[in-house]
Design a protein that fits this description.
81% of the residues lie in helices and 3% in strands. By secondary structure, the protein is mostly helical. It has one domain. Strand 1 and strand 2 form a beta hairpin. It is globular, with a radius of gyration of 17 Å.
């Protein structure tokens, strides 16, 4: 939907958000497959899919960071910012390539994603304060809603046999992605 109308003639920041949404969609399919078919796939296949999911989420966070750089800081600093984002992603992905597919690896993936969201939050807060951009405000709200989702997931709450903290996390995270989408539609390049 971010490409609707102007396609690849959208600002680069919007295109990066669109690519990030694509990565999140791929990660959702991978995660749903792991959760939905563990007996059919087997432990080795599940481990491989989780590892792929972590790579895709890392790429999504890299794209979100790159979009925030493009939309919130002056052009003269963007190249340095992208080099730092690329270095962060390269180091994480290289390090993850040496890790076994375990719950610890997923925890490290979450830390990578959360650190990216923290940096996006800082960049978008800067854009809100100094550039007064409406898109940045939506993205900030999306990040705050994501924080609520993460708090719910870590709570371990269980409402029924088939509805627990993980399900609640995904429902709240869908709301956060609505805010990310709204922010992305209003994003402009610097």
């Amino acid at each position: 939907m971010l490409f609707k109308g102007r396609g690849f003639h959208q600002p680069v920041a919007v295109q990066l958000w669109a690519a990030a949404f694509g990565c999140v969609a791929i990660a959702a399919v991978l995660g749903g497959t792991c959760h939905g078919f563990p007996q059919v796939l087997g432990e080795e296949a599940i481990g491989t899919l989780w590892q792929l999911l972590l790579y895709v989420l890392s790429f999504a966070s890299c794209l979100m960071l790159s979009s925030s750089l493009k939309s919130s800081i002056p052009r003269r600093w963007q190249t340095w910012g992208w080099l730092l984002v690329g270095s962060k992603s390269f180091i994480y992905l290289s390090w993850m390539g040496t890790r076994p597919s375990t719950q610890d690896a997923f925890t490290y993936g979450v830390v990578d994603y959360l650190s990216a969201m923290l940096i996006v939050f800082v960049l978008e807060a800067r854009a809100t304060l100094y550039l007064n951009t409406a898109g940045a405000r939506w993205i900030l709200l999306g990040i705050l809603i994501s924080a609520v989702a993460i708090a719910l997931q870590t709570s371990g709450v269980k409402f029924a046999e088939y509805f627990n903290h993980n399900d609640l996390y995904h429902l709240v995270q869908m709301v956060a992605f609505y805010y990310f989408y709204q922010g992305a539609t209003l994003t402009k390049d610097q």
